Amino acid sequence: MKYLLLFIFIIASGFCYCQQIKGKVVDKDTKLPVNGAMVRMGSRIAFTNILGDFSIAASANDSLKITCFTYKPFKLLVTNTLETLHIELEPAKIMLNEVVIHSNRERDFKRDSAANRQFYAKQFNYKGPKVMDAFVHHVPNSTSELLTVDVITLVRALTKKSTRAYKFNKLLLRDEKTDYINQKFSHGLVARVTGLKGDTLSAFVVQYRPTYAFAHKATDYEMELYIKDCYGKFLKEGIKGADLFNSNKTDTAVFRLN
Question: Which domain holds residue 49?
Answer without folding.
Answer: 2-89
